[in-house]
Write the structure tokens for this entry.
Amino acid sequence: MSILRIVTAVAMTTAISALIAPSAGALNYCGGKYCDPGEVCCGAFCKSKVECFCKAPKSTCGTSCVDKHVNPKHCGSCGVSCQGRCANGACTPVTVQVTRPKLAALDLRVSASSHYVLASDGGHFDLRDRSPALAPVTDSVLSGDSAAAMNGIQALFRASLYDDTPTNLNKQLSGNAPIPCDWHSPFPVEGPFAATTPPPGIVMSPNKYIAGGKSQWPSSSCVTDLYDMQQSFDTLRQRFWIISHVRNRIWPASCDVAQSTDKALCKKMNAQALRVSLVAVSKTSDPHDGFWTYVANKDYADQPWQGIHNDYAIFHHNKSGGFHIFNAATMAGTATASGSASELKVTNAANGKTLQADKDFHGARLRVAKHHEGAQDATYIVSYGGKEDVWIYALKSPHPAGKTTLLGPAHYASPANIDVQEATYSSGQLYLVNSIGGALAVHRIPVSLADVSAKKEIDSNTVRNWSISKANQSIDYATLGVTSTQDVVVAYRADNKNTMPNLVRYAILYHGESAFRPSRNVVDVPGNSGKGYFALDFVGSQRDTLDPAAVWTLLADENGVVMSLIRP
């Protein structure tokens, strides 16, 4: 064979071999075998392109190559999604809007319409225009009346307490009462307890809440002491709702009947003790258009609560004896030309009789669940008594004209004692934030109208429970907001056990995660050091009307109150 023929044969053999057995460096051939479709040869192994070319600090999540330190869809771990930013592998809330309202850190509440944000501290209001930058707005009522020395809440209810009107409650207390009410006096009509001598035969009972526990004769029986204010925004009717207790400075046992010789006079004085819940409803979504005001109840107890949902405006206090249900549409003026306050007749489905609030609820205390999604088939009511049991009742919607029926209860046996701070219903889940032993517990209970109607025993295995606690701090007075993505924002008061400051912080439970993430600072605003020293009784939060993935909160640090819209 000639040399030319030999060389030609070798060349052809090499070419054929190249076609039959590609080199190890080819993308689809690796270590003597072909890689599967979509794979490449990566070293000595067939791998996906993502696995082969995804290098640190990035890593693979499914078919994606991501940096879990900063990726908001895979933050810290694959599949952990942030609505806000991802920083160092942790979801970091985005503060969409923030400002410092001129409020004290007392009884903090916040609610928002599409145009306004209304914050309050129990006596004063701070009204803000959302666009462009939470600019403060002056309102003829909510801003108070400086000429009459009235703050916002006093000006709001002046027709019921201070002005010469047919609805003035104090007119009823003037006349021949043991302790007269001089409602004609310039504001304020209620002076402090005067250290005067009681009438002959009267022995006053010491009151630990007044004047250091000393026994003093009240100078007036006028009802002017407004306190424990709360507020909310009704997305269904586009109305702001505000409730406040008002009282005189007479308690039911102010006079010691056993020790007094004039027992008849003593009993009459004690009977003058009065506490009333007053309610104001804005006539439109704009507070400048004024408010309708009502007396919701005269049950003697503290801490008024309101639940505005579906057809119902529900007003109660911290004991179930005072529980009143009104037609929300008529009070808000959306069903009639002007607001009215006709209480609905409520029937107990269990016995067919008229509801007796102090007898028909299993627990001694109640909370009406906040509802974020607007109109639903039911309004849920939580009853509890300080132990492990939670009973869930419901009012079906819409209700027949002038009446409704209390359904339930479903029952849940909690693994620990229950002291419900607030309840929220969202997407078929009832969220409870519970204060116990200086810490908080959050419960998510799946429940429906059918469950309540059937008086279902809720399986504890279907309930999720989370805890919020912090070393050397006692945390309580909590409120919660649930976003449309089912992230949970809990705002709470934190008391430092060592130095005794109070502040308001928040914690976030991201949907699908197993634990709450506490905020490192109260909020990122100039001058904030994350330390506070305020005393307060309530904190507030509400899912935003325009951005359902965000929650409004009122927080507090050493520089004052912070209003913030947080998107988890």
Remarks:
- Confidence is low (pLDDT under 50) at residues 3-26, 188-193, 520-536.
- The first helix runs from residue 3 to 20.
